[in-house]
Structures are given as C-alpha cells and as structure tokens.
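User: Can you model how 3-isopropylmalic acid sits in this protein?
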Amino acid sequence: MPNRIAALYGDYSGPEMMRAGLAVLKAVSQKNGFEYQIEAYPFGGEAIDQVGEPLPEQTLAGCQAADAILLSAIGGPKWSVGGQSPEAGLLKIRQALGLFANIRPTHIDQAIIDQSPVKASVLENTDFVIVRELTSGIYFGQPREEEIDQALDTTIYRRAEVERIVRVAFEYAKGRQQHLTVVDKANVLATSRMWRAIVKEVQPAYPEVEVDYMYVDAASMKIIAEPSFFDVIVTDNLFGDILSDEAAVLPGSLGMIPSISQGASGKALYEPIHGSAPTLANQDRINPISMIRSVSLMLRYSFKRTDLADQIEAAIAKTLSQGVMTADIGGQAKTSEMVSKIIQNL
Amino acid sequence: MPNRIAALYGDYSGPEMMRAGLAVLKAVSQKNGFEYQIEAYPFGGEAIDQVGEPLPEQTLAGCQAADAILLSAIGGPKWSVGGQSPEAGLLKIRQALGLFANIRPTHIDQAIIDQSPVKASVLENTDFVIVRELTSGIYFGQPREEEIDQALDTTIYRRAEVERIVRVAFEYAKGRQQHLTVVDKANVLATSRMWRAIVKEVQPAYPEVEVDYMYVDAASMKIIAEPSFFDVIVTDNLFGDILSDEAAVLPGSLGMIPSISQGASGKALYEPIHGSAPTLANQDRINPISMIRSVSLMLRYSFKRTDLADQIEAAIAKTLSQGVMTADIGGQAKTSEMVSKIIQNL
Ligand SMILES: CC(C)[C@H](C(=O)O)[C@@H](O)C(=O)O
Ligand SMILES: CC(C)[C@H](C(=O)O)[C@@H](O)C(=O)O
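Assistant: Here's the modeled complex, given as structure tokens:
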C-alpha cells in the first residue's frame, strides 16, 4: 500500500508553494523508488469560500486517514481574523489531530548569511530547535471571557500535557548536542513552576542531557545576542509562538524555514513557518525552499527515508551555492527556476 | 521645600551604580541650582537580610512620601527566587505605588554601534519606546493555582487598567513621531480583543497619531528585522516583559539603558533595566550609564528639569565619543573613570 499524504494547498501563494514541494517530491521519489499517493483537501480560506468553514469534516477525515500531512500556507486579506477565520482552522486541526509538539529548527544557510539582520560573527555555530507545546496553554484554556468591564484568558497545563512535550524535547536533545534549555516565567507563573517540576522528574531518564532553565525575557535577549548557546529549547504554547518567530529572523529569510507539528501516534503535519504572502501570489516569485524543506522533513520523520531527505537538502545547498536564489534571499531567480535547478541537482 | 528622592541602593553592583548616579546628580545640581534631598531605604535582598522581607513597610512609606524614586538593581545568587525573593519586592512596589506604566526607551548610541549583535544598517533610524502595562495581566490575575494534576494562571484586564495605559502610550506617541503600534495576540486572546476595542475608543482624542496593530509573534520578528519601523509600542505586562528585553539587545549593551515606571499621580521610579551583575560587583567595572540615564530621566520627567537632563545626556555622549568606555561597551575604563569624565564633561 503506498504511503498516503494529505496535501492542503491553502491560499494565495499556497498552491504555488505546494506544487513546488510536490514537484521535488515526485522527482526524488522516482529516482529512489518511493511510492506515495497524494490526496488534496480544501483548508483555510479556500475551505471557507467552498463550505463556510476553514476545516471541513472531509478534510479532517482525510488528514486522519493519511500517514502525513503537507500544508502550504493559509489566510490573507480576503478573510477576517477570528470566528470562521483561516487561522481558526489551524488551531482546530492541531487539536483534532493531537499535534501537540511543534518543532521549529533554526538553521543558518551560509550562502545567504548576508541577508540576516544579525552579524555573521554572532551567527557562527548557530543551530537549534525550539520545541513548542501546541495544543494547550492559553490558546485553549477555559474560561475565556469578554465582558463589558473586563476580559479574561486562562493558561492551564495538565501534568500529562507537559510530560509528553518535555519527553519529545529530551528525545530531540538526546539526538543532537544533549543540551536542553527550559524557557518559562517561573518567577511569576504557577504553570511555569509545574513545568520545572516535571522536567526534574523526567530528567533522570536522560542522564546524558544537560538541562538549564531560563526566563522567557532573558531567552528573548539571548536568541539574538548569543544564539549559538542553544541546542534544544522547550517551552509552552505562547512563549513558543513568540520565541520561534523571533528565532526565524536569524537565517535571513522566512522563506527558508519549515516546521513539524507532531502527535503521539507519529503522525505529523509539515509546513513552512511563513504565511501565504498575498502580495507575491501568482507571480512566480515565492521562495519554494520552506515548502521543499517541509517535504524533506516529512520524508525523514514520517517515512524514515533519510536518504531522500539528505538528497533534497544537498540539492538545496548546491542550488544556493550556484547563486540560484529568489528575491527574498538576494537573488533574481523565479520560483520555477529554483524548483527546476533543485530537481536537476538531486 | 527641596525635592525628595528615595534611593534604593540594592544588591551586589547596586550600591556602586547608585553612587555613580548620585555623584552625577550632585554635580549637575550644584552647577544649576537644583535642590534635593536623598533618603536611602533598604530594598530587595538587603532588606530580606535586615528585616526578612524585600519591601519593608518603612521603605514603602518612604517611597510614598518621596517625589521620585531611584532604584539601582536587586537580587542575586544569595537569595532564592519566589516567596520572599528580592524580585517579589519589585512586583510589590509596582503595585503598592500604582506604577502601572513601564517606559522602555530603545535608543542607539552611535559610539558603540559595533557592540550590537545587529548590523548597523538595520539599526539606522532606530529610536522607539515600549510602553508596558505593569500592574495587571497574568502577573497579578487570580486564580493562580498549583495542584497535583494541573496548574493555572489567569490573565485579567479591567477596562480602566487598559484605558489608562493606552492613554499614556498615545501621549508618548503624540510627543514623538505620532506612530503607535498596539501589540497583542487578538487572534487568540479575549484580553487582546478588549485592548483593541479600547484603543479604538481612545484614538479619536489623538487624531494626529497613526495606529497600527501587530501580533506579538510578528512584533518579535520586526523588532530585530526592522526596528526603525517603530515609534511607540503599547502592550500588556507579559508581552512587554519579553519584547522590551528583546529590544534591549539592539543598543549593544544592557549597561546603557534606563527605564521609568510611572503612576497616575506623576510619581515615578527610575531604574536601569539590567540586574545587579553579581560577578562584576565591587570591582569598579560596572557600566554606570544606565543609572546615570535613570537620573537624567528623573530630572526630565519628575522634576521637569529638561535643562539638567540635556546636560547629562550631552556629557554622556561626549564621554563616549572620547572613547572612555567600560568593558561591556568595548573599552577599558573603570566605573570611577567614566563617572569622573562624565562629571567633567557636564
Ligand atoms: C495563526 C496563529 C493562531 C498561530 C499561532 O499563534 O499558533 C500562528 O502564529 C502560528 O504560530 O502558527
Ligand atoms: C523580576 C521579574 C518579575 C520582572 C518582571 O518580569 O516584571 C523583571 O523581569 C522585569 O521586567 O522587571
């Protein structure tokens, strides 16, 4: 039975991004004998237009049946924020599929280091991963209230929710440089103090991993001032949202960065970290690398095809070193040229 | 009656910092005929050692009676975090004195621009202020619970709390470049949606101020990627904590940056943004500028002595341009040398 991949083409630049990713998937698979089957489903703004909600039942069912999910990017000026918004679909799919761990790699491509707002000397040896809790915390905590005279949001963490994300982070740290930084606000928040307690309980199972604790305000400085300090960061949903986007400025373009949202079953959703770039749509200008890297991560983690993932990564590096780059990373290549070149370099 | 200033000398490097600030205050006052009276009170770790709590009643009463408060820095490895910690004293004094608005300027000193992790080209025209709500939100919201199986924190904002901080921010924007950015997470949080509604109510009173809205994750990118975009940022207690520390990496050293925590009555507390630097204490090595600038802000805002504040700022700029700098900003000067030079340059 071939591997089943659900493809959510998304809005504005989303479809172009998805086509780029799938073209590279096709090429690398034909070369190496990887069998798969793509099923496309509406999601986000497109789904709101078609059926009035961002995550239609049929899309959710398709994602549940799939072995892995590829998402490009959703949302844009056509749809409102809040209520039946494209973004609400993101929160729903994360929760419905139990995708509790968001993995955000920060990797510096030497070929585009000049694009970074941060000095090359500061970026030296920077390579870290943020493990963000994705299905709890203030994003989902009840009560949430808007009254006449006050408004209220609730951060709740249940012990089991913290334990599973902390384990994911320790596993990543074990497979990397064995350094885990727990980011919280334990000098103020009760939830942070529970996180620290649970880290201390899990820690003995990972004696090789060195653990340190950092307040979120200090972390927000260190990510820019000394990014090479970090190997794996684990943090809650809200802090992870802020810090992972902050870290995304380091490589020099959001167009380079993929992400994983993974669940307990091993099922995962792969997507670029950036949005649907409405102003670039349909002009053959979007950087396809974030999507192609999402495909590569999918091959590596969901389908255990490290060989194919390595080939894609090598082809991207070669393409960049040949100076074939879209405008966001300082070049003049069109999306289609980058995709052809990457396929040629496979 | 002379102007009454409460001085909280603090821990580790705190007393050195305070002495530096007061030496400059004395010099500039003698030159210009400014009369004042200093009353020192224990606060933070020192107060815990003396009377068992970080904010003794007598200290609070002294601060209440004073026209302005100077604080150096508190805390350090000697005292625990949480419970009767020095930091708990900070939260208490803010609330007890009603210091609801924390003003954090981000100003780039050209003389030390090489110290910044961010490229000089990115820092061009960067000069903004973060207005952080300081006495509400998740820092003070109830319930806060740590149970066996879960923990919980609550973000609450009352309408009046938001309105007063928003007004402070509009006032700052009016006196600067008339550009206010409201930072929140309105696509998720009910409190953020209330903030936006209140901004829209207050806005008509400030027709000259242009207002935009930005999610906190996007803001955490833009502060590094394009800091010159901002003029005044207004945000809640937690987001302000994170973003103002993030912004503090831009100038190149925390040792340069003062802050104001102001209340409704016009009373305010002035302090460097950095901690007590335990490893530098008593070695004549700490950068005194953050404290001297706190004094300058006090003269400007609490005592309306713009002339004295301007003289201090000019003396600091001249001293830096003469290459007299402490180690944190790339020089070899001792604290005492910098202080003498600044006084000489007055
Ligand atoms: C769209 C928004 C709700 C979402 C989040 O905050 O989780 C986005 O910022 C992200 O990080 O994927
Ligand atoms: C010490 C801590 C509670 C405090 C805060 O988070 O407000 C500090 O980080 C600050 O910003 O002054």
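A couple of observations from the model: Chain A is about 40% helix and 20% strand. The mean pLDDT of chain A is 97.
User: Helpful, thanks.
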